[in-house]
Amino acid sequence: MSDTIFGKIISGEIPSEFLYEDEHCIAINDINPQAPIHVLVIPKKAIPRLVDAGADDQELLGHLMLAVGKIAAQLGVADAFRLVVNNGEGGGQTVFHLHLHILAGTNFAEASI
Ligand code: 5GP
Description:
Blueprint: H1 5-11, E1 20-21, E2 25-29, E3 37-43, H2 58-75, E4 81-84, E5 100-104
Antiparallel strand pairs: 1-2, 2-3, 3-5, 4-5
The structure holds guanosine-5'-monophosphate.
Residues 5, 28-32, 40, 86, 92-95 line the site of guanosine-5'-monophosphate (5GP).
């Protein structure tokens, strides 16, 4: 497990409400939401950045994508969400334990990116 805040949340050292959990990942509400719905999907395996994932992680990465669909459905936003992965400091990553941001509850249709 990583020493990051997410490693501590996954291990239970820092209590947090899991919106979703399965064998390979959890989902929690972001502490500083950037949209009305802002959920983080975090693999239990501590991969620092997306680019640090290797061939061994192929199945896990697919699993995370399928989990996103399930979580979006659970949240009632399967038809309207944005999925973001920040990679590296220059990409805006602040917690170096891979995670996916599900952003929803606002209209992204006219956003420039
Ligand atoms: P990054 O910038 O690394 O892509 O995203 C890290 C995210 O983790 C940020 O959106 C930040 O608000 C969130 N975050 C940081 N610390 C905590 C925490 O202790 N609990 C929760 N739930 N989210 C956190």
